[in-house]
Specification:
Length: 296
């Protein structure tokens, strides 16, 4: 019989937040999902709680099911979203806005499974694939437990994870943080000086830039393709926004750029780098996704 105390179940929150953020790509939605899972736990009669051998496994299963439902409804919501939808960028713990209630910076682990590049790939998966892949490949949950989340057999869950893995493809060797930081720094310098030639040299000819304004602020609604086009667009932004301040910051655990104007964060940019050149830029402008970056 389980005899989990309130402290023991509360101690699962860190793991649940990490699972839910990777499943949903939104910190706000992740916190809501975990809160709902705890609400269901505390709604159980004490006798039922004591029957549960592993409250942590129970909470993970319930959180996973809630996330699965959210992912299903999110597809419809994102079809109505203005422009491209990008995951919510996360600052480094030291950069987090500590003025808004409980601090999730103490709970989120920023590793390769939360980089913008990885989260964008997760967005291409079906909800069931994403749950199976994240729980198994990232958090090492056995398929027997994942079966309880998805309501499928362990064999079916294994197939879903394999299908998701094919979407991820063969991972290339990750760029070192120092290597990416050097490239990002050079992009910052070229952007600040409006040096189109230098930007073109730093951008892969087939680079793609995706921006997320959510219809709340103006931005390009479709990805900008091609290094030269992106360079011209970046310089045009600098021309239209005098006083834009660029800062090198960790974004989802890897080097990125933050643009501030009049002291407020207006853009958080993530980069994918290969062979010293930028292949992808993800620029989040939607202020609703920048709350952790805002001054308290």
């Amino acid at each position: 019989m389980g005899t989990a105390s309130t402290d023991e179940t509360a101690g699962e929150r860190r793991q649940l937040i990490n699972v839910a953020y990777r499943l949903l790509g939104s910190l706000a939605e992740a916190e809501d999902a975990v809160q709902e899972a705890y609400a269901r736990w505390y709604a159980l009669p004490r006798s039922r709680q004591e029957e549960i051998v592993s409250p942590g496994a129970w909470l993970t299963t319930v959180t996973g099911r809630i996330c699965l439902d959210v992912l299903g409804s999110a597809r419809a919501r994102r079809e109505r979203y203005v422009g491209a939808w990008l995951p919510e960028p996360l600052p480094d713990r030291a950069e987090w806005n500590h003025g808004q209630g409980a601090d999730p910076a103490d709970q989120l682990v920023l590793d390769e499974s939360v980089t913008m590049a990885f989260l964008v790939v997760l967005e291409s998966m079906t909800p069931a694939e994403r749950v199976a892949f994240v729980l198994h490949d990232v958090f090492r949950y056995p398929f027997a437990e994942i079966a309880g989340v998805l309501g499928r057999t362990p064999a079916a869950c294994k197939q879903l994870a394999a299908s998701a893995r094919r979407r991820v493809g063969v991972a290339r060797a990750p760029v070192t943080a120092a290597g990416q930081a050097d490239t990002v720094r050079r992009v910052k310098e070229a952007w600040e000086t409006k040096d189109i030639a230098a930007l073109v040299d730093l951008l892969d000819p087939a680079a793609v830039m995706t921006a997320d304004g959510g219809g709340v602020v103006g931005t390009v609604l479709r990805p900008v393709e091609g290094g030269a086009r992106i360079a011209r667009y970046m310089v045009a932004i600098a021309d239209k926004a005098p006083g834009l301040e660029l800062l090198e910051r960790s974004v989802n655990g890897v080097p990125g750029l933050v643009a501030r104007r009049a002291g407020e964060v207006v853009v958080v940019a993530s980069f994918d780098v290969a062979d010293g050149r930028v292949t992808r830029i993800w620029a989040v402008r939607n202020p609703r996704k920048l709350r952790p970056w805002m001054s308290p």
